[in-house]
Design goal:
Length: 594
């Protein structure tokens, strides 16, 4: 009996010791989560315009005046010269062009203009978060997650390990870089961690270029503070959209001007874009092109050139001619010095990233591709892109002929940045050569994913989260079954919200058969969302089935899911038809030219 008790006591002691060790190990594991700093993209930081020290109710990002004020400004400055143009069908001395440029500049950039030192003239401030996500207000949390849906990260790492660096997107690059440099030190101290992870998004990539240059200027190793960098569609070499607008202005190709440019500028409001296509023909073609060029030049020369953060979005290949155009005057010496400094950081981006990797910093990159640039510049279809940033910039040099263009049969790779002969970085669609990118083993690609909808792709947000949290996630092969190097873009944010709402509905009034069908529709949708190795056909089928079932059973409307087609879509179709017919019969002629 005593022997039995001794054995039992020994077993209990081992169990208690093991339990204690597991608890301790769990605590260490929790403490060892390295905090992450998200560096948002263009206009993703909450920014406010202040008057007399108080924020106004003007809506960001441009803090435009109300409609009555804008109309009043247009009538005051532009009515007479535009009337003269329409009557005479000639824009003498570019009076209409200058007037339109003035109205647009004051409307869009007036409150955001910087001075000759690169600082806001008005009181414009980004909301700063000197706390972890855990300690922010409910409003701040909701705002951040609406812009950057990192719910998966919070689930994995906890709110206490998420920090958000915010900045005013049209302000000063060097000041912003210094603030982020200091913020990294703050997060280390606040969290008690030796290092941080960074997730620069879009414009945040250009800010990260500047921060890495600060480390070089200060003689500090990147690895002193940084554990991982997860770039998300980064503007590491700017955007051709910005560079060509600075250098050349808006495109002047007739078919684009009278068919695609205005709908692209209008964004989601295609109907208005095609209507503008039709209205534009009241002006002669030559004058219309001159007006567009003048507006673009004056916007840059009078407003945009003073923002050094915007200069950070000018590709290195466009910088020197643009510098000569806008910064050669002595009055621009301070801004020129700052932009030259960033240009050097931009050119050193690859070298700095490689040096960080050599120091043990793990660097990943997430790239969207196969979406043409917005059709507002001449080279919109000359490169592969994600709609906003060209592939060469976001991917650190991956090669592609263009959107929906396969690599030619006689293509010979001139650069290979993967030294492992056993690795296969082939794009299954043969559109991108990932080996020519700087980091082929840690770069992920999403086919047909639009830049501006990246936050609505739950797979990308999950991938970002796991790369920031899971130290065993080291390259594109670690979880290739769940996160293949070449994946597919999808827009799932609204679908996820609708599924969650559906689960809260009272279904007690439905028949058993209806309840079962609706439940199956929800489960099928959730199963499709769980698939991070995307089967787009099944995802869209599950989405359509859910909406068809919901409309029929819940709303009593039996109709086919159309993806949200409404009256505006039909009007857009009609206006597009008229616009296309006008071009077909009259090319680029204005009504008077006809």
């Amino acid at each position: 009996m005593k022997k039995s008790k001794k054995i039992i006591s020994l077993i209990l002691a081992v169990v208690m010791l093991s339990t204690t060790f597991m608890v301790a190990a769990s605590a260490v594991e929790k403490q060892d989560v390295i905090p992450s700093i998200v560096v948002p993209g263009l206009f993703q930081s909450e920014t406010k315009y202040y008057e007399d020290g108080k924020p106004t109710k003007l809506e960001a990002p441009f803090f435009m005046s109300d409609t009555i004020e804008i109309v009043g400004l247009a009538l005051t400055e532009a009515l007479v010269p535009i009337s003269k143009l329409l009557i005479s069908q000639e824009d003498k001395d570019q009076q209409a062009a200058k007037a339109l440029a003035s109205v647009l500049g004051d409307t869009l950039m007036g409150k955001l203009k910087c001075d000759e030192n690169g600082h806001f003239i008005n009181d414009v401030r980004a909301t700063k978060y000197y706390d972890s996500f855990n300690d922010l207000s409910k409003y701040d949390k909701e705002y951040i997650l609406d812009q950057l849906p990192l719910n998966k990260y919070i689930e994995m790492a906890g709110e206490e390990n998420l920090y958000v660096f915010s900045y005013a997107s049209l302000g000063n690059m060097k000041d912003t870089a210094q603030e982020l440099y200091d913020f990294i030190q703050f997060v280390k101290e606040d969290s008690g961690s030796d290092k941080v992870n960074l997730a620069p998004v879009s414009q945040g990539g250009s800010v990260m270029n500047a921060v890495m240059q600060l480390y070089k200027d200060n003689g500090r190793a990147f690895s002193e503070d940084i554990n991982r960098i997860v770039y998300v569609i980064p503007a590491l070499d700017g955007s051709l959209l910005v560079g060509e607008i600075y250098q050349y202005g808006l495109l002047d190709d007739d078919i684009e001007l009278y068919s695609k440019m205005m709908p692209a500028l209008m964004g989601v409001d295609e109907m208005a874009g095609y209507l503008v296509n039709i209205v534009l023909r009241i002006m002669p073609n030559a004058d219309l092109n001159a007006i567009l060029d003048t507006v673009a030049f004056d916007l840059v020369n009078d407003y945009m050139k003073y923002s050094t953060l915007l200069w950070g979005l000018v590709p290195s290949g466009n910088y020197e001619p643009c510098r000569e155009m806008y910064l050669s005057d002595d009055s621009m010496a301070v801004i020129r010095e700052q932009t030259d400094w960033f240009y050097n950081a931009q050119k050193n981006s690859d070298a700095n990233i490689k040096e960080a990797v050599s120091q043990g910093v793990k660097v990943f990159d997430i790239v969207d591709y196969n979406v043409p640039l917005y059709e507002i510049i001449d080279s919109w279809d000359d490169v592969n892109a994600d709609g906003v940033i060209h592939l060469d910039s976001t991917s650190m040099g991956a090669y592609s002929v263009g959107v929906n263009k396969t690599l030619p049969a006689d293509y010979v790779r001139t650069v290979n940045n993967c030294t492992n002969p056993n690795h296969d970085h082939s794009d299954p669609r043969n559109i991108v050569d990932a080996n020519t990118g700087l980091l082929p083993c840690t770069t992920f690609y999403f086919y047909n994913q639009n830049h501006e909808r990246t936050g609505s792709n739950d797979v990308i947000m999950k991938l970002v989260s796991e790369l920031l949290v899971d130290e065993s996630f080291t390259d594109v092969y670690t979880y290739a079954d769940r996160y293949p190097q070449f994946n597919v873009g999808r827009n799932s944010k609204g679908f996820m919200n609708d599924l969650n709402e559906a689960k809260t509905l009272d279904l007690s009034y439905l028949t058993v058969d209806e309840r079962e069908r609706f439940q199956y529709a929800i489960e099928r949708g959730e199963a499709a969302l769980e698939q991070t190795n995307v089967d787009l056909a099944e995802f869209e089928a599950a989405k359509a089935y859910f909406y068809d079932t919901r409309d029929e059973i819940i709303y009593g409307e039996e109709k086919e899911y159309t993806g949200g087609l409404d009256f505006n879509d039909y009007l857009a179709t009609i206006f597009k038809l008229i616009s296309d017919l006008l071009y077909y019969f009259f090319d680029g002629a204005g009504f008077s030219d006809m």
